[in-house]
Amino acid sequence: MSPGxxxxxxxxxxxxxxxxxGKLLKKVSGASRSFVSIFLQWLLTGLVSTPYTFKDRxxxxxxxxxxxxxxxxxxxxxxxxxxxxxADDVNYGILVGYGTTSPAPGDYDLESPAPxxxxxxxxxxxxxxxxxxxxxxxxxxxxxxxxxxxxxxxxELGLAAKYYRKVGTDERGPWYFLLIRDVLSTGQTxxxxxxxxxxYTIKVTT
Length: 206
What we know:
The chain is mainly β. The chain has one helix spanning 37-47; strands spanning 9-18, 24-32, 52-55, 61-64, 76-82, 93-97, 119-121, 125-132, 135-146, 152-167, 170-190, 195-205. The longest helix has 11 residues, at 37-47.
């Protein structure tokens, strides 16, 4: 890589805290530096058509296949690396939590994930994707509402994906795996009744 040339793959995050009327209270953003090892291992399962074993969010070792051999007369259902978590499902999609321990390559979950009963999660959506000049990007978005009745401080963020594979009677999953974990330099307080919108943008520069 030439000196001064941008990093080829960049990930960034953004948080917007708004009160119950929609007024913007705070907006922070930063560079994510915390793809965990599971991300590359999962990617390799597809690149070399070989199963890899890594921990799901519960800490259980799971063997993941992204290759389905040709078969006739067999029902197949396959979900691979889906991050579009639906509303009220905090198993996958964008995640928020209260932990403060620095990220490590072996992380497989947030240190202290915020339960849906405190920070109610709406759907994780693909807000935008495209190509601009020599940059290809995708932005994912999720809104959380503080329904706990008290202020909550977010210290960590993450992105997790769903895996499910069924070939005939061989069923694996659904399992959930952490891809990214970031710890904020300063915790962000979400007042009772307020919302926080979290975005992750993945950008590749050619």
